[in-house]
Design a protein that fits this description.
This protein is an alpha/beta fold and about 350 residues long. It has helices spanning about 5-10, 25-30, 45-55, 60-70, 75-85, 100-110, 125-135, 150-160, 170-175, 190-205, 225-235, 245-255, 260-270, 270-275, 275-290, 290-315, 330-340, and strands at about 1-5, 20, 35-40, 90-95, 115-120, 140-145, 165, 210-215, 220, 225, 240, 320-325.
């Protein structure tokens, strides 16, 4: 049996059946629905040849070439699906780019082999349109802000341990949001897949309860937040955590000085222009000599100035400043929750 499902219902099927992306490996690598397994109807090279022939000679010629490519692989497709299912179900959900011939062909094959197949109406393209519209909708948002080195990520994790809903944007992006943010991190996802992962996390949350996010720029490393999501975040209440600069320096010393000095200097070059010739030369020298604290203080001056400008730019939101004399995440998380509860915001 083959049926078609709109995107909202299709995403709910992941809990009961495998989700199959039948697009080429290259398409899948750029972005896919989280949890989907790639069983490509065509390889990247085959897809290119079919597409070229379609443009040059029309649909029928491309169809015959596609059949020549797919025929020898048909039994392999069914074996791959069976290895995924392992007898737990006889159902599978499938999608291609537009919900057209590729997913329909694979659904026919699976149906012939005795499986019930569900196709995504509009395909992956419909999914992408849907998530960009829906990301950040529903649940109220609290944004945790503060200067670089304030320990915001640790506070967010502590808030999560205390029962608050949290999305760690930097963890999803594999970047800590500064020129040094890529150090020690896995490769960043594509921008498309970052948006997919963000929606996946958002969709798991209780929309009746607030969600905590860290105050971020539009871009986190090389990936960018969806416009609708970013705009809503920048209009949501901001809890601005103020921590003494020396505590921030100490935190950054612990976080980054274990990395190779050459990597630190390479990262520093990305902000060489705003730091100025003398400043960057001195910072290079200090890093090379292992005297990291002065270099970190110089970098913090740049980031503090940048963040203050951002606060002035995105000022159409309620901003609450909370001052702390400690870098302890537990103490700061408790202070934030106590303040919000006293104001009946939680």
């Amino acid at each position: 049996m083959i049926r078609t499902e709109e995107i909202s219902g299709f995403l709910n099927l992941k809990a009961e059946m495998p989700l199959i992306d039948v697009r080429s490996p290259g398409e899948y690598a750029i972005g896919h629905i989280p949890g989907a397994v790639n069983i490509p109807l065509f390889s990247d090279e085959e897809r290119a040849k079919v597409g070229t022939l379609y443009k040059q000679s029309g649909k029928e010629a491309a169809l015959f070439l596609g059949l020549d490519f797919v025929g020898p692989k048909m039994s392999g497709f069914i074996k791959k699906l069976k290895s995924l299912i392992r007898g737990k179900t006889n159902k599978a959900a499938l999608y291609c780019w537009r919900g057209g011939m590729r997913s329909s062909s694979m659904a026919w094959l699976f149906s012939t082999a005795g499986f019930d197949a569900t196709l995504l109406q509009g395909g992956y393209k419909a999914y992408r349109t849907y998530i960009r519209q829906q990301s950040g909708s529903g649940a109220p948002i609290f944004v945790l802000g503060g200067m670089t080195g304030s320990g915001k990520t640790e506070v967010l994790h502590q808030l999560q341990k205390m029962g608050q809903q949290v999305i760690d944007l930097e963890n999803l992006a594999h970047n800590k949001g500064s020129v040094f943010g890529y150090l020690g991190q896995p490769p960043q996802p594509t921008n498309e897949q970052f948006e997919n992962l963000l929606f996946e996390e958002w969709s798991k949350l209780d929309p009746s309860k607030p969600v905590w996010l860290e105050d971020e720029s539009r871009s986190i490393g090389a990936v960018g937040q969806p416009p609708v999501f970013f705009d809503r975040m920048k209009l949501s209440p901001l809890i601005l955590l103020r921590v003494p600069s020396e505590i921030r320096v100490k935190r950054l010393l612990e976080e980054y000085t274990g990395f190779d000095k050459m990597l630190l200097q390479e990262a520093l070059e990305k902000i060489s222009r705003p730091l100025g010739g003398e400043g960057i030369a001195e910072a290079r020298k200090e890093i090379q000599e292992g005297d990291f604290a002065p270099a970190i203080r110089l970098v913090l001056k740049y980031y503090d100035k940048t963040y203050e400008k951002a606060l002035q730019k995105f000022n159409q939101r309620e901003i609450t400043e909370l001052h702390s004399e400690t870098g302890d995440a537990v103490a700061n998380a408790n202070m934030i929750l106590s303040h919000l509860r006293n104001r009946q915001m939680l």
